[in-house]
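Dear Dr. L.,

I hope this message finds you well. Following up on our conversation about the binding site, I have prepared a predicted three-dimensional model of the protein together with coenzyme A. For your records, I am including the exact sequence and ligand specification that went into the calculation, followed by the structure tokens. Please feel free to forward this to your student if that is useful.
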Amino acid sequence: MVNGTQTKCPPVPQRVVTERLIIRPSARSDAPYLRRWWNDPTVMGPGGNMDGMQYDDADMEDWFRRYSDGQDYATHFVICRRDPGETPIGEFYIAYDDRPGCVGFALVIGEKDLWGQGFGREALRGYAAALFASNCCGAMRMDIRRDNVRAIRLCESVGFEVEHIWANGQFQTMILTQDAFERLEDSRSAGETG
Ligand SMILES: CC(C)(COP(=O)(O)OP(=O)(O)OC[C@H]1O[C@@H](n2cnc3c(N)ncnc32)[C@H](O)[C@@H]1OP(=O)(O)O)[C@@H](O)C(=O)NCCC(=O)NCCS
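The resulting structure of the complex is given below.
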């Protein structure tokens, strides 16, 4: 804590299982997947890393040391298929946000052949449900390039709203409050039962 402000992420849910997916903390054995996804300009370009990260082995090791080792609880997760091998298909992180009651979030479905099949939405919706049920925070924020139509539609479909358009006009911050999420989930269940 600095001046009474929380400077670390709250303890977020560590394992979430949805219809087709298992979300679990990332491990060093995931490095080949993460490196392939992060180095791919097609995967990272829509988020703003136009050339991909181009990490080598040393960069990956450094990443695990900085963001994974020695943490009390994970804040970086791998999204796996619920198949016998629990095959990794994507990843996301939860980040500290200095605005009280909020966390930051960014998501990648690294297996680009699987884009458009609802996996991004299933992961985000499943994790948001677990996060809000855990009462560790009341809102999630995501910074998205305004030309990233797929990501914006994904966010809107889960209940995110535009909070702020950046001065350069290229990015927007989107926010998902627990209220907005639960309202949308309730109207979905009413639609299913009604
Ligand atoms: C953005 C991303 C996570 C979405 O995951 P996904 O599994 O492809 O998305 P879904 O299949 O769940 O679809 C989500 C929405 O995008 C829409 N969509 C799918 N393909 C689309 C396309 N080519 N163009 C526009 N919208 C598209 C879907 O129809 C759905 O919207 P709807 O509910 O209005 O129908 C994934 O494409 C990705 O990893 N992209 C690269 C990294 C990135 O941009 N990350 C987000 C910023 S941090």
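In brief: Residues 90 and 109 are 4 Å apart (CA to CA).

With kind regards,
A. P.
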